[in-house]
Design goal:
This protein has helices spanning about 55-60, 60-65, 65-80, 85-95, 105-115, 150-160, 160-170, 185-190, 200, 205-215; strands spanning about 10, 15-20, 50, 80-85, 100-105, 120-125, 130-135, 140, 195. The protein has a domain at about 20-130 and about 205-215: D-Maltodextrin-Binding Protein, domain 2. The protein has 10 helices and 9 strands. The chain is of the alpha/beta class and about 220 residues long. The radius of gyration is 18 Å and the shape is globular. The longest helix is centred in the first third of the chain and has 13 residues, at about 65-80.
Length: about 220
């Protein structure tokens, strides 16, 4: 959880990206089992939603490399998906039956929506490599802090089993993938991750920008 160079920075949460779908609109045997399944002819023409903020696709760079990820992005755009904004809003639309499938939901958002879904319509699937933003939130102790050791004790608590259990309960479902027994660790156990670790974290905005460019959105002249 600790930054390998800037040792005063800690990332104690994780965000896992999954695909969410309305199981009353999409049968289990049709739901994609791999990312490339989104490129099948049956998914062309407004058959799934893609967020214009491409957290999930950009998070494939650690496992796939930049070029493969950008090639996939161009092919996704050629599928003519529904372009959406805000994972929460898209998840609500999937639940309401406005759309059947979303490429790249936040696991914690979907789990929270499922817990409130009285219709039993919403479900999710984990696809490998699993886009894993291991530093969903990073906090630091500043050199000029008045009480650095109090801050250190706070970080130590957040990284402890007790602190991580609280994060899973109240965030919710965002404890670190590095914590044995955390929800993120359990659902990804034995699976191949595409981990946006400290090395890739600082390049996140750059990678997202390149994915957006690969989508081919129109640009204003001025």
């Amino acid at each position: 959880m600790i930054h390998p160079v800037e040792r005063n920075i800690v990332g104690y949460t994780s965000t896992i990206q999954v695909i969410s779908y309305n199981k009353k609109l999409l049968s289990e045997n049709i739901v994609p089992n791999q990312w490339e399944d989104f490129l099948k002819p049956e998914f062309k023409g407004r058959k799934f939603v893609v967020d214009t903020r491409p957290y999930a696709i950009a998070a494939l760079v650690p496992a796939w490399g930049l070029e493969k990820t950008l090639d996939f992005s161009r092919k996704i755009a050629a599928q003519q998906p529904v372009w959406g904004s805000s994972v929460t809003r898209i998840t609500a639309a999937i639940l309401a039956g406005e759309y059947s499938l979303h490429l790249g939901s936040n696991f914690n958002s979907v789990k929270r929506a499922i817990s409130k879904d009285a219709t039993g319509s919403l479900s999710y699937r984990i696809i490998e490599p699993v886009p894993t933003r291991m530093v969903a939130r990073g906090d630091a102790i500043l050199p000029q802090a008045d009480h650095p050791y109090a801050a250190l004790l706070w970080f130590e608590f957040l990284a402890s089993a007790e602190g991580q259990e609280i994060l899973d309960k109240y965030e919710p479902f965002k404890a670190s993938v590095f914590t044995p027994g955390s929800v993120a660790e359990q659902i990804t156990r034995g699976k191949k991750l595409s981990a946006v670790d400290w090395q890739h974290y600082t390049k996140t905005q750059e990678h997202q920008g390149k994915v957006i460019e690969a989508f081919g959105f129109p640009k204003a002249d001025r």
